[in-house]
Amino acid sequence: MSQHAGLEVLLAEPRGFCAGVDRAIEIVERALAKFGAPIYVRHEIVHNTYVVNDLKAKGAIFIEELDDVPKGATLVFSAHGVSLAVQHEAAARGFRVFDATCPLVTKVHVEVAKLAKEGYEFIMIGHKGHPEVEGTMGQLDSGIHLVEDVADVARIQPAQTEKLAVVTQTTLSVDDAAAIAAAIEARFPSVRKPKQQDICYATQNRQDAVKLMSPKVDVVVVVGSPTSSNSNRLAEVARKLGTPGYMVDNADDVQPQWFAGCQRVGLTAGASAPEILVNQVIERLKALGAVSVQRMPGDPESVKFPLPKGLRLDQNENENSHAP
Fold this sequence. Notes:
Blueprint: E1 7-11, H1 19-35, E2 39-42, H2 49-58, E3 60-63, E4 74-77, H3 84-92, E5 96-99, H4 103-117, E6 121-125, H5 131-137, E7 144-147, H6 150-155, E8 164-168, H7 174-187, H8 201-213, E9 219-223, H9 229-240, E10 245-248, E11 264-269, H10 275-287, E12 290-295, H11 315-321
Parallel strand pairs: 1-11, 1-12, 2-3, 2-4, 4-5, 6-7, 6-8, 9-10, 9-11
């Protein structure tokens, strides 16, 4: 008999793919269907090992430098967004480009461009080196200052403070971002905040679900790749509430010792992790002795983002695709 016999699994709701991830993956798949392999993708389309490997098998080639893309190729920008320099270089090289940047990231880019024309400087709350942060900061040549924590707020030196605005990486911890934003406002009382917070609805919803779940379980398992910012934040949220939180890229990463003395395990997935991986983790937990799987109540997400022009399979395109 398993040492974890009787373990219950509580499934967070919502979890897994968000609308921006769904859209990004569909863009690559449709580009492959329409133009054939290979399709080049700048950076991992989303931060998930399974998704990236699946698209590689279908003919996607992931690159970091545009030098690695041959002339005349089809190029997709990842969901995290890119700098203006990358956009301009891709245009100059004549690639056929499809932009899979999440529309909620694009919203931040548009806001930065608009306010920059009005003379604003920016403070960006985010993680240094993350592709989304590089893309957003790369919308300007200068005048955008990155802060990763409250201590950074005291160090930044904007050229002026009359016109100062805050923008945020979309996949941060809601609570951490709020604490940093409060420190910014304390130092720069007239700072302009976004009308709607930049942290995306899916990031917020998944963190709220973990906050609801954590007190009801002995341990939280988050399905997500190590490079996924929003997945890492889910494990952090659990830990901050006093519940051990572990991240797994797949079912093989699940360690039996995590559940010693546990009666109930909470299971969720980051916004870039597919449901197939959640199901595989459930099977692994059952093999370890889990006897029941219960879904938490939660509102399903209905957000859907449109695809770029040129990839929509309208009636004429469908007809053409079946032509001899």
